[in-house]
Specification:
The structure holds 2 protein chains of 2 kinds. Chain A is of the alpha/beta class. Chain A folds into 2 domains: about 5-225, Rossmann fold (3-Layer(aba) Sandwich); about 230-295, Alpha-Beta Plaits (2-Layer Sandwich), CATH 3.30.70. Chain A is built from 12 helices and 14 strands. Chain A has helices spanning about 45-55, 75-80, 95-105, 110-125, 140-155, 170-185, 200-205, 220-230, 240-250, 275-285, 300-310, 310-320, and strands at about 10-15, 20-30, 35-40, 60-65, 70, 80-85, 160-165, 190-195, 205-210, 215-220, 235-240, 255-260, 265-270, 290-295. In chain A, helix 3 crosses helix 4, helix 3 (about 95-105) runs parallel beside helix 5 (about 140-155) and helix 8 crosses helix 11 (about 300-310). The longest helix of chain A has 16 residues, at about 170-185. In chain A, about 40% of the residues are buried. Mean pLDDT of chain A is about 85; it is low at about 315-329. By secondary structure, chain B is mainly α. In chain B, about 75% of the residues lie in helices and about 0% in strands. Chain B is elongated, with a radius of gyration of 21 Å. Chain B has one domain (about 15-270). In chain B, helix 3 (about 40-60) packs parallel to helix 7 (about 120-145). Chain B has 12 helices and no strands. Classes of the chains: A alpha/beta, B mainly alpha. Chains A and B meet through helix 2, strand 6, helix 3 and helix 4 of A and helix 1, helix 2 and helix 6 of B. Bound molecules: adenosine-5'-diphosphate (ADP) and magnesium ion.
Amino acid sequence: MTKRGNAIEIKDIRKSFGTLEVLKGINFVIPRGSIVALLGPNGAGKTTLIRILSTLLTPDAGQATIEGFDVVDEADNVRGVIGLTGQYAAIDEYLSGRENLEMMGHLYHLSKPDTKKRAAELLEKFDLADAANRPAKTYSGGMSRRLDLASSLIASPPILFFDEPTTGLDPRSRLMMWEIIDNLTKEGATILLTTQYLDEADQLADRIAVLDGGMIIAEGTPNQLKAKVGNERIEFEFDSLECLKKAEKIISNDSILVNEEKYTLSVANDKGVKKLKSLLEEFEKSNITVVTLSLHKPTLDDVFLKLTGHQATAEELAEEEKEPKKGKK
Amino acid sequence: MADTAELTRNVKPETKSKFGWFVSDSLVLIERSIKHITKNPDQLLSVAFQPIMFMLLFRYVFGGAIATGGTSYVNYLVAGILVQTAAFGSTYTAIGVSTDLHRGIIDRFKSLPMNSSAVLIGHTVADLVRNTVSSIIMILVGLAVGFRPTATFVEWLMVIGILLLFTFAFSWLSAILGLFAKSIEAVQWISFVFIFPLTFASSAYVPTKDMPTPLRIFAENQPVTQVIEAIRALLVGTPMGHHALYAVLWSLGILIISIPFATYLFRRHSTR
Ligand SMILES: Nc1ncnc2c1ncn2[C@@H]1O[C@H](COP(=O)(O)OP(=O)(O)O)[C@@H](O)[C@H]1O
Ligand SMILES: [Mg+2]
C-alpha cells in the first residue's frame, strides 16, 4: 500500500442534521504517528466528526482522507486501515472476551492462527486474561471498555479513533486506559481521540484541537494553547489579611489576583526564579509571613474559558440538567 | 504471509474474492447469532419449552372441542403449531437486529472492511437453525401424544423445504421491523401486533370455514394459512389443492422484496 500525504487530512467538512448545523467547516491535518485530542463540550460535534472519518456518516460537504483514501469514495479502503472505539461500548455481551476478539479478528480477515494469537496477546496486555472466557456482560465498566478498545486493535490498524475512551470510568481504569493509549503511540499508531476532559487531552495528546460551535476554535500543542492564556503564576498564601494587604501594596504595579477570604495573592511569573527570589526578599523585609507558596501552571480549563468565554465543565453540567443528551439514532 | 507482524500491520490479505469474503463474514456472524441462542437461557427455554407447551395445551385443552372433519385434532394441530412457532421465532431476528442497532456494536461492524449486510444474514440464518431444532422437538412431542403422519420420505423433504423457506421469509420481514423500530422494547409489541393476527387468523388451530365471513376471507388468503395447509396436506393427507404452490410463491415473494429492502434500510441506517 502506498502511503500518500498525512495520515488524516480534513478539508472543510460540514454536516447538518435537519436545521442543526453541527460541523461548520472543519479543517486540519494529522501527521502519521501523532496523537491528537479533539476537545469539546458535550454536543460540540466530536462524535459526528469521528463518525464521518470512520465512514459511518456521510458529510454534507468537504473532503477527508485517511492514509490517502477518501472516506466517501474509498470507504472500503479506509475501513481496512482504521480501528474505531465508539462512544458506546461495541461489544457483544453474550460472547466472552475471547470470543469477541476472535470474531473481530475473523471479520478483519486475519488468518485463524493470527487471530488466536493476537486475541490471547491482547487479553493478556489489557488485563483481561482471567476473565477471557466469561460472557462480556459480567464485565465491569473498565473491563468492557478495555475489551472494546482491544477489539479495535485486533488487526493492528495504523489509524485509531477513540471517542471519549475514558468517559464514565473510575480513576484507576482511567489511568490504565491512558497508559494503554500512550503505549499505542509508542508503537507508531496515529490516534485521534475525543474528550471532554481537559487534563486528559493535556496528558495524552501531541496536539489539541478545540471544537466549539461547529468550528475548531484553536489548535496547537498543549503548551501553545496554554501560552495563549498567559504565563505561569506564583501564588502566595499569607497568615492574615493584614499581611495580604501589605504584600498587595509592595507589588501593586503588577497584574495581581487577590482572594481576601483565603488570604492568597497570585502574580504572573514572567521573570522566572529571579522574580520569585526578589519578591520573597521584599516580604521578608516588611515582616510579611508567607504560609504557602505555589506555582500555578495554566490549565486547559483556563484555555477554554479564554477561547470560548465559558467554562467547559460548568456549561456542560448546566446543559445536561436542562436537556439530557439525546442518544444517537 | 511469512511474517505475522507484517501481516497484522497491514490491510486485509486479499486472498479471497469479494463474494468469498462475503460468505466467510456471513459464516462468522451466523456463528455469533447461534451463540446468542446457546448462551442465552431465555432463548434456549423458548426453543425447547414453548413448542412442548403449545403442543400439550392445544392437544388436551382444545382437542375435544374443535371439529376438524375427518382428521383427528392432534393430526390437524401439528402443522399449525409448526408454522406458528416459526413465525414467532422469526421475531428473534427483529430483536437481534434492533439490539445491534441500538447498542454501539453496529458502528463497529460498519467500520470493518466487510459487507455489513452479513449481519442480517447472521440473524436470519440463526433463526433457521433455531426453528429447525424447535420443529424437531415439536414433532417428537406430537408423536408422543398421538400424531400419526402419513407423509412419505419425499413429502417430509417437501415439508422441511416449505417450512424453512417460510421461516427465512418471515425472518427477513422481521429484520425490517427491527430496522424500523425506534427501540428494542418497541420491537416486542410491533412483532406481536404483526404476528398474532397472521398466525391466529389462519387455519392453525381451527378450520377457517367456521369463521365470520370477513375474517374467513382474510384467513384463507393470507400466506400463513397457505403454508399451514400445504404442510398439513403433506403430513396427514388433507386436500392439497394449490396450497403448496401458493405457500412457495408467498415465501419467495416476501423474500424477493424483503431482502433488498432490509439490506437497503440497514446500509442507510444512521449514515445521513
Ligand atoms: N443522527 C442525528 N440526528 C440529529 N441530531 C444529531 C444526530 N447525531 C448528533 N446530533 C446532534 O448533533 C450535535 C452534536 O452531536 P455529537 O457529535 O454527538 O456531539 P459530541 O460527541 O461532541 O457530544 C448534538 O446536538 C446532537 O444532538
Ligand atoms: Mg460524543
